[in-house]
Amino acid sequence: MLRIRNLVKVYPGPVTALSGIDLDVSPGMFGLLGPNGAGKSTLMKILAGLLEATSGSVTLDDDDILANPMSVRARLGYLPQDFGFYPNLSGEKMLEYILRLKGVEAPSGRKQLVAELLSRVNLTFAAKRKLKAYSGGMRQRLGIAQALAGDPRILIVDEPTAGLDPEERHRFYRLLSELAHDRIVLLSTHIVEDVAVLCPRFAVISSGRLVCETTPADARRSLAGAIYEGAASDADLERLTRDYRVTQAVLMEGRNHVRIHAPAGRVPEGFRTVEPTLEDAYMTLVRGASSVPSAAPEGVAVEAAR
Q1: Are 127 and 115 a contacting pair, CB within 8 Å?
Q2: What is the pLDDT along the chain (306 residues), one digit of tens a residue?
């Protein structure tokens, strides 16, 4: 169990990046969803021992990560948002180099461990290929391979699918899902689909505050009967944005198709009720947190602003 209590991070300025985060994460896949700049990467770096917290506590199976990060480092794997590779090294040489830097040993030797890790992330075919020829998804899988060295108890992945094409993204989903069977996998992302596909539980963070912790099903269920969809002109879209909580606005055949959150049922002419999506719930929660916290959907656990 990963336990986070009243975690605060204040940068010089002062700028408060995290404001009293409380969170319990059990083994399996857990999503941390929020917009860019919400504080997700700051939280990931603190958990990985790369950044000091201003105050609070973090424990992994009762070991204090903040007080003694070295005690848990061997049980932790981390794939940051930007992972640098040497483009002229092959995949196996790059991975062997990283394992040497980490001090990872293996009974059968590092070369055998490298081969096993590459096989686990389906990169054996590209072991000798230079990294400059790797696709974005292949580089992310190599990043997961280095994070898996030492069979960590907790795996932290920060924005792992950003920039991947749909095929690579779904291949990466399957890999992460397999890895979550026997460890904690903490997935930080601003992409709602990542959470919808992978995470039985997730938390939403906005402006450094924990907005809610829930499940995708409960988040959607909390908006039943409150999401409406209709077409709107550009002028109407501006008015709708001002008067309603717009969860989505996309152009289809040259017209704006708009989804709005209207729990009271008072909607513009031509709008009809539709099934809520996780994106509807996410946008409602985030925009509610930034304006009127009490407007968050009923049935979803919401943390009071600290």
Answers
A1: yes
A2: 899 999 999 999 899 999 999 999 999 999 999 998 899 999 999 998 889 999 999 999 888 888 887 777 778 899 988 888 899 999 999 999 988 888 887 888 889 999 999 998 989 999 999 999 999 889 989 999 999 888 889 999 998 888 888 888 888 899 899 989 889 999 999 999 999 999 999 999 999 999 999 999 999 999 999 999 999 988 888 889 889 999 999 988 778 899 999 998 889 889 999 999 999 999 999 887 554 333 333 334 333 332
Positive or negative CA dihedral for 211, 213, 219, 223? Answer: negative
- CA pair distance 182, 179, nearest whole angstrom: 7
CATH superfamily, with its number, for domain 2-216: P-loop containing nucleotide triphosphate hydrolases (3.40.50.300)
Question: Is 195 within 8 Å of 219 (Cβ atoms)?
Answer: no
Parse the chain into domains and list their residue ranges: 2-216, 219-296
């939280």: which residue's tokens?
Answer: 43
Which residue matches tokens 């950044």? 51
Contact 110, 96 (CB under 8 A): yes
In this prediction the pTM is 0.85
